[in-house]
Design goal:
By secondary structure, the chain is α+β, with helices and mostly antiparallel strands. It has one domain: Sortase, Chain: A, CATH 2.40.260.10. It is 22% helix and 32% strand. A hairpin with a 4-residue loop joins strand 1 and strand 2.
Amino acid sequence: MHKIMKKTIKATIISIIVALFISIAMILTIRLFFRAEIDETISLIGKVSIDIENKKIEPTVIDAKKQQIKNYPEYGSQYATIEIPKIGVNLPVYYGDTLEILKNGVGHSSGSYFPGENGSIIYMGHNSAKMFRRFSELQIGNEITVKTNYGEYKYKIYDMQLINETETEKLPIQKEEEILMVYTCYPFNNIGYATQRYVIYARPS
């Protein structure tokens, strides 16, 4: 009886070890072959999903005297592109910041202002290779161009900061000065939810 129990326990331990090795192998395989997809879908959290297909880009006009936009874009629609030559970025910008939007390009926080309105502009994007993975290469003085459907705006980076997601005061909404803030998750090669953000700050040039 003792020998049978010994064999049973031994067999169970071997089965557990084999299952563990198989699980590890599967995780490594998924990470190796689907890393880009994982980066794009879970590196930033989206609270709501919306259908942004077949959205029309409404013509937009800015009143220079009032520094206010007429005919704001619909939520979920593309209204601009962002170019950062230093790191080869040329991406569409959508109004909104849901997970669905961030799969397609750069999101514009709906609580912030638009280029040309003389306030805080907050953009965000994934830290994937196709988007903002190369943020670490940026330096003070590098240029950013935002081409909207109502005009082109150029900015120069004046600061870069690593912040915690809870430090909302580092992404202030204000109407005294036009500041473009663009952020992504940190570390740049992170897989899964990250609690830190890498932010670049730029002023009109």
